[in-house]
User: Fold these one by one.
Assistant:
Number 1:
Amino acid sequence: MTDLEGELRSAVGAAHVLVDPDLRAPYETDWTRRFTGTARCVVRPASTAEVVAVVRACAAAGAAIVVQGGNTGLVGAGVPAGGEVLVSLARLAGVEPVDVVEAQVTVGAGVTLEKLQTHARAAGLDFGVDLAARSSATVGGMIATNAGGIRVLRHGSMRAQVAGLEAVLADGTVLTRLGGLAKDNTGYDLNQLVAGSEGTLAIVTRARLRLVPLLPARAVALVAVAGTEAALDLLTAARVQLATLSAAEIFYPEGLDLVRAYGRLPAPFGEPAGAYVVLECAAGTDPTDDILTMLSTCPAVMDATVASDRAGLERLWSYREAHTEAISAAGVPTKLDVCVPLGELTALVAELPETVARVAPKATVITFGHLNEGNLHLNVLDAGDDSDNRAEDVTDAVLRLVAAHRGTISSEHGVGRAKSPWLSLSRTPEEIAAMRRIKAALDPDGLLNPGVLLPD
Ligand code: MLT
Ligand code: ZN
């Protein structure tokens, strides 16, 4: 036992310092199985004070830290590169009573999205961000990556939900700003700086989150369209005509085939289509008639099926939400999460197959995502790991294509380790230099998530 492990045991209790390889293993590989590394040990603090003690012990020993929430990240930011102390925040799972007057709630970083949703709904409110990994994804990780999901159209990304944060800096200093004031112009917004910083500036331990009205009536339409251009025509009509629109998602026939085989789902329509769009409306009263009226007047609609009962909503959403699991069951994907202006979306989708085929002829690309934001999840399967056919080549080719279409290399998953070498495609040298100066000021020894976000 080294001094550091002893210090960590005093900080969190011996049962929560995992050194045995079998106990560490579930923390050391990411959800996609693409990123894996050996941690020096896994530490599981249960309070902010314990996080401070862990960080101070690591800082004194010069030991690097990698921070992990629900381990649902997709860019390798929450698993070790090799030799770091892995700090799991799963035990910071406390929820305070909902403040219904402010429509806010304070929760621990380790609270899952599902637990937060259940808690908010029991108080007659809801949380504005939702995503398929809700049962495992945690508030801390979602803030660190500025997660998006399926309701960004209505409520914005995770940053927009943050009314306050408590976070621990690399030297153990605790920044606490959990008051949740609606207006507060007293200088730099440190909470918003920490949100989206991927654990490189501070460890989020608690969050004060905004809540939104709980809308009891939902209607979902799964719509068959000819392709991306028609999907955008449908989106335009939906945005103009449906004040209650809460989600607009897209997927393509290759994804539908995979999802159907994985979930043993029936074909949603008699005839195949070029693309499929999921539209959801949420309101105080049943929005089905509004959706039906819009669909009946939109020329882009080839076919559509609409549901508003619980089972029907789940059934239609499953065609979209099962994509991630179905893809993962088919192999270890190279996941690229990109965003382009809507005017560039059709060209990007059209140019993608040839771009990938040039560097990985045997690869297949499964594309799906958040239509409203122009945010596509490009999942490349069988990109291969031999020298002629490498995942890095695919990443390079696709991210350059995205940049040429004025897009970003990360829309909502973050940069992590997966995309840090390509950061300069989305950020100017001046921006990267400013980010490095901020990092150096808050974490001068580079102990928090080294190698994540900023290229070495
Ligand atoms: C999604 O929108 O389903 C998530 O971002 C997960 C993924 O891209 O696989
Ligand atoms: Zn997504």
Number 2:
Amino acid sequence: YTVAMSRTLTRSRQLQLRAEKFLPGGVDSPVRAFRAVGGDPPFVTHADGAYLFDADGNKYLDFFGSWGPMILGHAFPPVVDAIQKAASRGASFGASTAAEADLAELVTRCFPAVEKLRFVSSGTEACMSAIRLARGFTGRNFVIKFEGCYHGHSDAMLVKAGSGVATLGIPGSAGVPAETAMHTIALPYNDLDAVREVFAARPDEIACVIVEPVVGNAGTIAPAAEYLRGLRAITAEYGALLILDEVMTGFRLSLGGAQQVYGVKPDLTTLGKIIGGGLPCGAFGGRADVMEFLAPLGPVYQAGTLSGNPLAMTAGIATLSHLIKYEEEVYNGLESTTARIAEGVAGVAREAGISLTTNRVGSMFTWFFSDKPVTDFASAAKSDTEAFGRFHRAMLDAGVWLPPSQFEAAFVSTAHGEAEIGMVLEAARRSLS
Ligand code: PMP
């Protein structure tokens, strides 16, 4: 396998300097600036299958897949065709189209717990809206979330959040009034006793528990056995809603997401990423009696100019239709490819005398630079982030683009095959030596 030895980033550097004149940090989302790993962020010109191409003509094997959506690889022809056809009919109407119910029907077929849903334009909106709905439905104010989980950048959800908040080492965010965050209770992940204690102290005050069923935003962390069902039982006992944030895991871990894999039925589910086939799209849905609390039927207000956008709906339909049609082939293939990559590189590290803790669930995984098990944010935070940064830069030089933070999950697509497995192992051999 040929692995690039060196690369120039002259053009990307120029583009970064230009971008910094107009955009804070030169970016529209903080982690893209590579502050946590160092080095220059390549500017992408195009992508195809498992590969990204930058402005200097470098080619990279992609392991972040637009942070999850690109499960079928980049520029997947049926998705491209669908978007092109839809675009020629008009980009947005602000009025209803048949495609909204078409995509909704596909989602409800895959997620039996989602009886009704509403489309939005991002995962942030999906989670923010689901929480408002849970508060409106229960008439309660408090929300329990978990340290290192990320549910978008709405004010109340930035408390002890993962993803870029963890990457930049900031405890939350300036600009969030204490009064806004005071109803958010952040507890350690994988600790049911902590949840029981809070419910016992505030039996009638907690509207909902929101959780990433498999954490991706502190790096990949699997739920302990019976953890999710435990959350289900406690919330049901106290009349609070359970919200599974499947923005990352939905359609990735299985057609029915983590809730199918772990056999747990939430009241509400949030979705994003894959559901829009790479276009801006999210959704929240669940029990019909809860969803009917939304305007225009009920008292909880929620809206969006571009919600249910026809291009996003079309890309989502093309993506989900393929996943449904080839379900076994897709998910079995992703499982075995990702296992060979995650465990293969872990083996390379062992041979090089480097301790990694490899966490993998289906096609999402993280190599933590730590020799201890990673089961929550506190254990993830013990990783050697300097070492991760060096590894990240060396892998980029070898043509492999990992997510630029220790606290993010890597993703594999159906476009990753034998050649790509060989390539990442070879790149890891060079980088870890
Ligand atoms: N929830 C989870 C689990 C996520 O991973 C993300 C994004 N990484 C979000 C919510 C927010 O989604 P968005 O960036 O589309 O607003």
